[in-house]
Design a protein that fits this description.
By secondary structure, this protein is mainly alpha-helical. The protein has one domain (about 65-245). It is about 70% helix and about 0% strand. Helix 2 (about 10-40) packs antiparallel against helix 3 and helix 2 (about 10-40) packs antiparallel against helix 10. The mean pLDDT is about 80.
Length: about 250
């Protein structure tokens, strides 16, 4: 695994490669199990090899699929999670804390965030986006000082990209499950539950993967991870030095 990780930087591996590894792990596992059971590594080695090739290729487009979903998520939420969290209408932070953060951010040139609900309007979203960019650039340049932001960012990107690949994963699992059913002919539920190994192990793995990805890889999880990252990023206001860029008042 360490040699494999050496081909990718830390963020790429966790955010783009790991989702594809999660999707392909059951398929590779089935190839290994069948190779051991059938003592026939020809077809099953080909399955494992094709999975690794698919991993290399698909890891490069996993981000694009995830970003495509991200745009739809933002549109449904009414803005980026960081923007929403900075609004006074959101209760992630209390109004006193939010006012303190806005005052801190207003020390950077070009920012004029509202300090209470009465002064907030729709145009302020552009101010919130600009403020978020300042915090993001600082956090991304200071991973050692802001490790939690970096971890939350990787976590969010992992789940976003995993959700983006959900449709492809379900298709692959269904194809393999249907193939197993066709090969077995008549399925004995009694045997499948009481004596799954070796005849039904591949089918059971696929069914469990289908159920798991349907239940746990969903929009709610991605949205929650997005807001977890947003909260952690906005909390950088507590620590960001205002002298890292020009202030609004000189």
């Amino acid at each position: 695994m360490d040699k494999f990780k050496s081909f990718f930087d830390d963020f790429t591996f966790h955010a783009r490669v790991m989702p594809v590894i999660v999707v392909l792990a059951p398929i590779i596992m089935i190839g290994l199990i069948k190779g051991i059971i059938q003592y026939n590594w020809g077809e099953n080695s080909a399955l494992i090899f094709l999975s690794l090739v698919f991993l290399t290729i698909f890891s490069k487009i996993a981000r694009n699929i995830g970003k495509g979903y991200e745009k739809k998520m933002y549109a449904k939420l009414g803005g980026m999670p960081t923007t929403i969290v900075l609004r006074f209408s959101d209760n992630t932070f209390d109004d006193i804390t939010k006012q303190r953060y806005h005052k801190k951010l207003n020390q950077f040139r070009g920012l004029n965030l509202p300090l209470d609900k009465s002064n907030e309007n729709a145009d302020d979203d552009q101010q919130y986006i600009s403020a978020t960019n300042i915090l993001r650039n600082y956090a991304n340049s200071n991973h050692d000082k802001e490790p939690r932001v970096y971890q939350e960012l990787k976590e969010y990107n992992f789940w976003r990209n995993l959700y983006g690949t959900k449709g492809i994963a379900l298709f692959l699992y269904l194809v393999i499950a249907i193939r197993e059913i066709i090969l077995k002919g008549i399925i004995s539920l009694n045997q499948a539950f009481l004596h799954p190994y070796p005849d039904y192990i591949a089918l059971i793995i696929m069914v469990l993967c289908i159920v798991s990805i349907v239940l746990f890889v969903n929009k709610k999880t991605v949205t929650q991870k997005g807001f977890d990252y947003a909260k952690t990023l906005i909390e950088v206001c507590e620590r960001i030095p205002t002298d890292i860029c020009e202030k609004s008042k000189v």
